[in-house]
Amino acid sequence: MDFDLNMPPYTFVKTLTASDVGSQSRLMLQRSDAENHILSHLSEDNNIAIQAGEGVMIRVCDRNSDTEHMLVLKRMINTTGSYVLNGGWIREFVNRRGWKEGQKIGLFWNSNKNSLDIYMLHPPPADKNNPN
């Protein structure tokens, strides 16, 4: 297996869906990914709040632009039971960075910074109307 030392150290990958970049204003995370790679690093109090459907603020770092943002992690207890990041997801990531459906992001919990770090793994497709 070949390793790229310049590749970010993500622990799970998410392909952005239409709902992740659209009007629903949230990033949907698979239950297993959230539980195995995020919740396992949070305090017991935060886990209890999240399991009750309450939102918990977490630091989310955009490693491509080296910026930090505070977003809300919550569980959708009345519907799918999945986890979502909202409270600024569209503004801070999708709109600011021009992220689109079909792009892949890598995510991992950064224990040193106590944050969820996100990398865009594939650059956004070129905008045919804006060559710059």
TrEMBL record:
MF GO annotations: DNA binding
GO cellular component: nucleus
Keyword line: DNA-binding, Nucleus, Transcription, Transcription regulation
InterPro entries noted in UniProt: B3_DNA-bd, B3_domain, DNA-bd_pseudobarrel_sf
Subcellular localization, as worded in the UniProt entry: Nucleus
Pfam families named among the record's database cross-references: B3
Domain TF-B3: 12-124
Protein name: TF-B3 domain-containing protein
Main location: nucleus
